[in-house]
Specification:
83% helix; 18 helices; mainly alpha; globular; 2 domains; Growth Hormone, Chain: A
Length: 462
């Protein structure tokens, strides 16, 4: 009887952990996909250029990427639940700040703060799940968590489009506040356990600072290309990144143990595959959202309904892909997903202002299938390849690859917009330039996806 009670309590605890992490995983992608549709409204209120609109997205990604790995390591030492809860709190507070943004600069600054909060959430959520669920259940649990991410992407365009259309773009952030508060209450009352497998070890502050500055230099520099300042930041960041590798190899408790990349083939190539996949897909929503609203003449709500096929396919396939990765090789499943992504991007290269909406929906669905088959198996491969003491770091690496990939993708998009239409707004005079830049972007993303297939397959070679 006591054994039955313990089993029941364990199931309830696991479900509570999964519910809290999935709830938090929903919030950030919901906001990201909703903000894409609100960009024209924000541009109108703040008289913002296309480059400034890109920074509303990129500022969040940049700050998240810089802080993900340090917070992942800090969570291993100080406690994953503690960092996770702090991230939820800061995310909710930043949403309130953005509601009262008075110009484009203040909004970008508040998005930076929100990105730091996102790093605290995503740098710990997968580590918490991996700490609770054993190997045979982990893929399914990670699949459900990824499903929550895609559910946010699915409902973001619909709910976000309607909120923007009827109540203005600020309502997007107001909508998040009660959900953030509910998540904080949920984790505080239902999850009493803490996980700190590296408790007592020293936090590598110097390494974290070097890493953060190096990554900022590379990502910011790339976003400013082809200007001279872009090359300066990119070069400085790269040199500092090389120094970081040597510095960490001689540090007792490094923020990132370089041996994970050098000696763990599955970890290394799964991380590279994630970086490539997010680099090839993240700016697709940015381009398609602007294409539908400016060139096709749809409002935010209508564009959201058209774009929903992309995340719906992800949402439906992620739990299945996660469950399959518990029974079969995650690398092969993820590679098939990358193949779908590459095929969809190749066809998107031929997009024109006259392309039927049905074709766009089909292509977005193909991309969604690719993403759904790739993400949770790839995450399962990464999280299952490391010791428990490195789970926070591994979770941080997963998040960092996602954010760096997203930033790289947006950097390509912003660079192409700068090359083809300059610092002008998107209007009938610049439509042809926008289309050329978008198609060039899809071509680059397709090439990246084909390279990603080989990186994904390479993880299991001996």
């Amino acid at each position: 009887m006591q054994e039955t009670s313990e089993i029941t309590a364990d199931k309830v605890f696991k479900r509570s952990v999964l519910a809290v992490t999935a709830f938090a995983a929903y919030l950030t992608p919901f906001l990201g996909s909703a903000v894409n549709l609100a960009l024209p409204s924000i541009a109108k209120e703040f008289n913002a250029s296309a480059i400034e609109l890109g920074w509303i997205i990129s500022s969040f990604m940049l700050s998240s990427a810089v802080f993900l790995l340090p917070f992942g390591r800090l969570a291993d030492i100080a406690g994953r639940k503690k960092i996770f809860t702090a991230g939820l709190t800061l995310f909710t507070l930043s949403a309130i700040l953005i509601m009262f943004a008075w110009n484009i600069v203040s909004m970008i600054v508040f998005r930076v703060i929100q990105g730091i909060a996102g790093a605290m959430i995503f740098g710990t959520s997968m580590a918490i799940i991996t700490s609770v669920f054993p190997a045979g259940e982990r893929g399914r649990a990670l699949g459900i968590n990824v499903t929550a991410v895609y559910l946010g992407l699915s409902t973001g365009p619909v709910i976000g489009g309607m909120l923007t259309e009827y109540f203005g773009w600020r309502s997007l952030f107001a909508f998040l506040v009660p959900f953030g508060i509910a998540a904080i209450i949920l984790i505080s009352t239902r999850i009493k356990k803490e996980w700190a497998d590296s408790k007592g070890e020293k936090f590598d502050l110097a390494g974290s600072l070097i890493y953060g500055v190096a990554l900022f230099g590379v990502m910011y520099g790339f976003s400013k290309l082809p200007s001279p300042s872009g090359w300066i930041f990119l070069t400085a960041g790269t040199v500092l990144g090389i120094f970081f590798v040597f510095f960490e190899r001689n540090t007792e408790n490094p923020v990132f143990d370089i041996r994970l990349m050098l000696r763990n083939r599955i970890f290394a190539f799964s991380g590279i595959a994630a970086l490539i996949h997010y680099s090839a897909t993240s700016a697709v929503g940015f381009f398609i959202s602007l294409y539908l609203q400016y060139l096709k003449g749809f409002n935010a709500r209508e564009a959201g309904l058209i774009m929903i096929s992309y995340p719906i396919a992800m949402t439906l396939l992620s739990p299945l892909a996660g469950r399959l990765s518990d029974r079969h090789d995650p690398g092969k499943i993820a590679s098939v997903g990358m193949g779908f992504t590459a095929a969809g991007l190749v066809v998107l290269c031929f997009l024109t202002p006259a392309t039927p909406i049905s074709t766009i929906v089909i292509l977005l669905t193909v991309l969604g299938i690719g993403f759904g088959l790739f993400s949770s198996p790839n995450s399962n491969a990464i999280m299952s390849s490391v010791e428990k003491r490195y789970l926070g770091v591994a979770s941080g690496v997963v998040g960092t690859m996602r954010m760096v990939g997203q930033m790289f993708s947006m950097g390509i998009a912003m660079m192409l917009i700068s090359l083809f239409i300059g610092n002008r707004s998107i209007n009938p005079e610049t439509y042809s330039g926008f289309i050329s830049g978008m198609k060039t972007g899809f071509f680059i993303f397709a090439i990246l996806s084909f390279l990603g297939i080989f990186a994904s397959l390479a993880r299991n070679r001996r």
